[in-house]
Structures are given as structure tokens and as C-alpha cells.
Amino acid sequence: MRIGRVIGTVVATQKVPALLGKRMLIVQPLDERRRADGRPVVAIDTVSSAPGQEVYFVEKREAAKAFPGPQIPSDVTILGIVDRIDLPE
Fold this sequence. Notes:
Strand content: 35-45%
Low-confidence stretches: none
Oligomer: single chain
CATH architecture: Beta Barrel
Strand order of the largest sheet: 1-2-3-5-4
């Protein structure tokens, strides 16, 4: 599981049928100090997050297994919105 910040949305006029009705967002992965860590990724949103919010997400096989029923073709899936992060001094 990783932390990231939603930085945009993706609009697709055509989708794989399994993705119909699912929102796609652009997420900038963050490191433990909330600094950009790598390239932005496109993620399937499961929690109605919005640009500017920090979220936690999973990648690879876990991303596809985040949905009930048949697997969704997703490499990155947003699982929740971050309320707070407490780090030791």
C-alpha cells in the first residue's frame, strides 16, 4: 500500500466494459515525508476522492482484487482517503 495525492482526472470516451461507471484519477505517489516519489499513475477510484486529496492505493495484483466479483483490469486502485499521518519526530 502506498500514499499519493490526486492531481487530476482522466476522461475516456471508450472503456473496457468492466470499467464502465468507474472513475479514473491521476495520482502522484508520495514518500514518507509527503514529497513526490516517482511518476504519476492513473488509478481507478473506489472512494470518490478529489483532486488535492491524499489517498492510499495499491498496485499490481492487489489493485485488480480490490473489487468484488470478476477481476477489474486495473494496475492501480485507490482504496481510501488519508485523514491524518503521524510521523515520529
